[in-house]
Amino acid sequence: MDPDYFKSYDMCWGTLGTVRPFANFHPDRDVMEVQAALQKKDATTLVRILTNRSSTQRQVIANTFEELTQKDLTAGLKKALAGDLELLMLELLMHPVHFWAYRLQQAMVGLGTDEETLMEILCTRSGKQLQEIRGAYTQLYKKDLEKELKGETSGDFEKLVVAVLNKETIAGAVQRDTEYLSASLRAKKADPAPWITILTSRDVNHLDKVLMGLELESGQLAEELVEKRFTGDLRLGLKVLVQCIQNPYTYLAKRLTTMKGPLVQGILISHSEEDLLCVRAAFLKLTGTSLYTTLQKHFKGDYLQAVMAICRSED
Q1: This prediction's pTM
Q2: Which of 102, 211, 228, 246 could form a disulfide with 222 if both were Cys (CB 3.0 to 4.6 A apart)?
Q3: Using one digit for the tens of pLDDT, what is the confidence trace for 279-298?
Q4: Which CATH number describes the domain made up of 249-311?
Q5: Residue range 3-92, CATH number
């Protein structure tokens, strides 16, 4: 790891991310090192630099690289690297909003739809961020995100996905909302409408109190109620939404326990500058083993060095 990295620990300690702006940042110097590394296919140097800069700094490096060399850094990485490491380095170069849009597109492309990844991204982004993602999706793929989601989903799950995409905060009374959710479960077939409407139109603190009230009244966890009373994709979607309302870090930690490469790097990159420290803490509490150590058991080589660098350290 670059010795100068430790100097960057003085920077931005207000964030809960693991990757912070590099204090001794000189894009011209980085470009010279990157250019040499590309020529030698030196993956170690490329990993050291690109995982040790913030997203904004990586954008500067890419732009400076093009200015100084008249070449595209993305194209250079594709020639120098291969496989999972190539994909990871290319994803690190994306603007965060473009990366979120890209993950949504990847969850829908090809045969079958990855419904849980759709919900993970939609449920862990704010309403403002989701509007930015919609714009980025249109820019990148020349398609409307809401129409794409409708084309990949159906029924009540489609209604839930669209409602989460368009979520807004409307004032509501905790007791009344709790009663609505409780009443929806009393019928022979549970009515999903109140769940979709309420859980996508209140702030998180309000919803946490609503779900807590429901749990006290029923004597069951909200997630258990959803598991018992709903089916199919709607059940999956509501479970993700409930978990993200109650503890998004624990939910993401559970996702990471699969140790599937694309999913791991998707979550690590998405949360590296926001709240990955919280996800790490939840992972340790959930599994009894740190995320840093767990990564070493499942990956190897330069790819391992890259994901460890984003994770950053042992807990």
Answers
A1: 0.92
A2: 211
A3: 999 999 999 999 999 999 99
A4: 1.10.220.10
A5: 1.10.220.10
